[in-house]
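Bumping my old thread because nobody answered last time. Still need a sequence for this structure:
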């Protein structure tokens, strides 16, 4: 096996136009399983393939990249850095983006490996070239450079190299290239900051984080909107949230929501602000966030009544996020009539909005109504029941009607609402008292797609696993549900199968 690959390499080295030979080598490599390939290629010299990357012929370069990607991926990072460091460095400045990405991916593998990483950390030129790739016109190259560099933040020597040598000046010089590149550097720094409190400390000391926070006050609303996105990512980690709180950022963003009333361009950054506080509420405490920053909750309610589909979508997603927790449900319930107005609008959207908004509204309603068995106190069951009944005079018929419309995504998300209430006794009582509903659940002819069958199967599984279902639904229905579950989501009865064959 190794001999045949070696002979193919030799053939390539003796040909001026080696497209056919390269294709043959690629085919041979793909035919060998990865675990067997490692032993076959570890002793080979790949200089001839690397040398062919200098061609101006796109097809030749593409074949070489495919071959190198296949071989280098199965070799150990130590082997790659010890044998092909110069070639990887040359790849970082190659005019072809695929060659750059190949080199960056391999460098990313190397820096993840403790012993191999040491060699890269001592190679200033390679690291400088990787940083400079962030300024590349092609986004795919820049993204891969960011991924590879962010892996350095998992070890102290990597952080020292990036932030305590003149590589920091290289980073700042690259930052100055353009607004777009500056935000790519922010993305890198936010990724690194998110790893640990130590890595955040390095980034804060570099002054790049404070520069990012300064963008929140800029005059350019698009830059401000992008900065809010970056800050939201930073807030995903606990140490990130602590840092932002210390810098007074939560208060600043809350004031931006309040000030948005007088800003005609606020629609560009308001969705980002709402997402920030929505994520903050779930990460920390819905009650604490909504009480400390009341402008956030008021704005979400206001956006639900907005005509702008972007605002509506973000408001719906945020309500679903808040309502997915018990504490969030209680916070929303405390607002009384305000939330009932919002719930009525959600029901209206679920019935008659554009399909995407209908799906998002139904999904949010599903999260609002979901209660795990261990959360089912008398008060919380009364709360979810009252919300469901507020959706319509006949909410069971309303949701079932939506599920019968010719949109597969609506079918699945409508069944998600039935799954939410199926775990609760009041939901089971509504199901058994709604004419034809149990037959609807057991009817396998509705919902033809895999996703639809999975959604129906989840609903049946929720009912069967409930401790109250057998008693409320009756033993006969419960036996049929268990049989459905036992047969699996994709079961086709013999009668149905014969009917289909007869139709052919």
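Sorry it took so long. Here it is:
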């Amino acid at each position: 096996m190794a001999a045949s690959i070696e002979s193919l390499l030799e053939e390539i080295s003796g040909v001026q136009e080696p497209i056919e030979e390269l294709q043959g080598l690629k085919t041979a490599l793909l035919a060998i399983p990865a675990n067997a390939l490692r032993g076959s290629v570890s002793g080979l010299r790949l200089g001839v393939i690397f040398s062919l990357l200098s061609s101006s012929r796109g097809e030749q370069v593409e074949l070489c990249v495919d071959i190198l990607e296949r071989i280098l991926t199965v070799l150990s990072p130590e082997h790659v850095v010890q044998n092909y460091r110069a070639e990887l460095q040359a790849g970082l400045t190659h005019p072809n983006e695929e060659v750059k990405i190949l080199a960056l991916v391999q460098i990313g593998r190397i820096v993840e490996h403790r012993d191999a990483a040491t060699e890269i950390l001592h190679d200033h030129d390679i690291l400088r070239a990787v940083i400079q790739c962030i300024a590349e016109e092609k986004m795919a190259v820049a993204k891969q450079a960011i991924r590879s560099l962010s892996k350095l933040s998992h070890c102290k020597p990597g952080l020292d190299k990036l932030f305590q040598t003149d590589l920091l000046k290289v980073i700042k010089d690259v930052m100055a290239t353009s607004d777009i590149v500056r935000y790519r550097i922010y993305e890198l720094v936010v990724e690194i900051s998110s790893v640990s409190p130590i890595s955040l400390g390095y980034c804060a000391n570099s002054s790049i984080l404070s520069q990012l926070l300064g963008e929140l006050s800029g005059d350019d609303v698009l830059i401000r909107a992008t900065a809010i996105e970056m800050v939201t990512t930073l807030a995903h980690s606990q140490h990130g949230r602590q840092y932002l709180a210390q810098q007074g950022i939560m208060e600043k963003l809350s004031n931006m929501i309040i000030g948005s009333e007088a800003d005609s361009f606020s629609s560009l950054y308001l969705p980002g602000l709402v997402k920030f506080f929505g994520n903050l509420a779930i990460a920390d405490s819905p009650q604490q966030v909504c009480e400390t920053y009341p402008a956030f909750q008021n704005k979400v309610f206001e956006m639900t009544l907005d005509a702008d589909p972007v605002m509506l979508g973000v408001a719906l997603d945020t309500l679903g996020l808040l309502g997915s927790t018990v504490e969030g449900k209680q916070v929303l319930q405390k607002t009384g009539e305000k939330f009932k107005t919002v719930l009525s609008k959600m029901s209206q959207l679920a019935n008659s909005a554009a399909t995407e908004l209908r799906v998002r509204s139904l999904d949010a309603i599903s999260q609002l109504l979901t209660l795990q068995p261990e959360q089912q106190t008398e008060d919380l069951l009364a709360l979810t029941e009252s919300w469901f009944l507020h959706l319509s005079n006949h909410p069971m018929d309303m949701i079932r009607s939506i599920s019968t419309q010719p949109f597969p995504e609506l079918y699945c998300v409508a069944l998600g609402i039935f799954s939410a209430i199926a775990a609760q006794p009041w939901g089971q009582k509504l199901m058994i008292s709604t004419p034809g509903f149990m037959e609807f659940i057991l009817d396998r002819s509705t919902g033809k797609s895999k996703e639809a069958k999975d959604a129906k199967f989840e609903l049946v599984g929720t009912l069967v696993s409930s401790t109250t279902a057998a008693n409320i639904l009756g033993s006969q229905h419960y036996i049929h549900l268990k049989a459905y579950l036992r047969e699996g989501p994709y079961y086709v009865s013999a009668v149905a199968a014969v009917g289909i064959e007869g139709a052919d």
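The radius of gyration is 29 Å. Let me know if any region looks off to you.
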